[in-house]
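Why does residue order matter? Because the sequence determines the fold. Keep that principle in mind as you read this record.
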Amino acid sequence: MDEKLISRRDLAFQLYEVLKVESLTQRPRYQEHDRGTFEAILDTAQQIAETHFAPFNRKADENEPVFEDGQARTIPETKAAVQAHAAAGFLVAHHDAALGGMQLPAVVVNAAMALFKAANVSFAAYPLLTLAAGNLIHRYGSEEQKKRFLPLLLDGRATGTMCLTEPHAGSSLGDLRTRAEPQPDGTYRLFGNKIFISGGDHDFGGNIIHLVLARISGAPPGVKGISLFIVPKFLVDEAGRMGARNDVVLAGLLHKMGYRGTTSTVLTFGDRDGAVGYLVGEPHQGLKYMFHMMNEARIGVGMGAIALGYTGYLHALDYARNRPQGRPLANKDPASPQVPIIEHPDVRRMLLAQKSYVEGCLALGLYAARLVDDIRTGNEAERARAQELLDLLTPVVKAGSSQFCLKANELAIQVFGGAGYTRDYPVEQFYRDNRLNPIHEGTDGIQSLDLLGRKLWQNGSAGLKALLREVETTLQEAAGENELAELVEALRGARDTLAALIMRLGSLMSGAQAEQVLANSFPFLEVFSRFVLAWQWLRQALVAVSGLRRADLSEDEANFYRGKLHAARYFLRWELPQIEPLCRLLERCDPTFLSMKDEWF
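Structure:
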């Protein structure tokens, strides 16, 4: 089977063999489903991805949106893709049946979305943001707001955005200046500028529902004075009918190195009388509400990075199997036929590294989505455990996946050789698209500060304790498998090294050296990400060993499981040990980054 998006066999392995997703159908919310319905959803996603998303991926990259007559103009194929995606019900799939949803597990929806992202990641940004906007309004909006705006987002009559960044503030949200003036009718009028707003304008038709952070006049300074507002591009009446244009103006488009099919906009609110906005929840609680959308978008960005890394790997694998070049080193006969480049050990090295990165990150991304299902439908203890784990792992899903899968795309280019950096092959576009993900939705530096400065210690380190319990369970399950003894020893040693490091950093965080500790947050994120991915690989290896014992195993299936085992060996032999020198530097709070002075550059 010629697969170029994401391996369906690997998706099935992750969903049904590792994550045991079929067990979710025993819960009331998902009891109408079975593996057959899950596979039908993935079949539909793959068909739409291959038919409506993938064919214009290159065209959208070569024909960016243009700013014309005050509006963003996109290529015609985008509208057809929007309609196909919405008509298939993917915007509402995870919602209640009462809202027209299918009550699908989050893990299945995320698996389906991965196929869309692998096919055309820049277009997939529109439904990703629309899904997140709908989820936020569903959770925090008033009943009137949900009635007015939610149906538009769920059936595709509107897309959603998140409007945070301002030109003068960047990621420093506490410095935003967009202001909201209360009106006698209970609405607000917004005045300000937002920048880098993905999907902030387009010509698909329908409405755009902006979720905007702003300050109500007289609000406290900093992040404690931020509120959240629904600001539609077109005003919407109580029945959901679209009316007059709101005072939201597209001021221009930004042109990025990747994601070129996504409009990246500069928006002005309040050029005239002010943009009509509706306060979500309580005043000054906007950042808390927006973090619901931001965290969802961060996992979405991580899954986008994984999808790009994965499709790049599959393209490189196909090329390596079909590109003849050179001969084995031991063959000295120049008249003998050339061999496919996959026969060369260095090419296999690069392919194996890619496989370990993308399949390890896919396992982690889907594991995180499975935690969402436990938060929604588990018992009280399961919900608490899943929430702590998800909070802790979100920076790794976003930033760790962005780093490892970007490296996978780099190696894919290298496998193609000189052809890789030409535009005759798609791997150079995959790299450019993926290079944005270490920046999207909070840079990797911000994610590392979130992890080391907050997530690791919150609620008495409940998330870390839960993670270490999960790792210990995996180690105990794998300890009885002789074939996994080396991997168990490697992960156990890394666990002990990491635990000692965290204890050391925890003692310093409460003292005068906290700034020095946080100055090294990015290397800590790298250490933590490698450890988490090594754990995910041991989980996969454990299932693969069991799979190889099946009596009815075909040769293809045996090779699949052998490939899993070998990728696990690679990651724990070659990638995991790289944490050791970093841990030594982190333990002594190396001051190199902090002590460097501006004038020395």
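The two ends are 53 Å apart (CA to CA).
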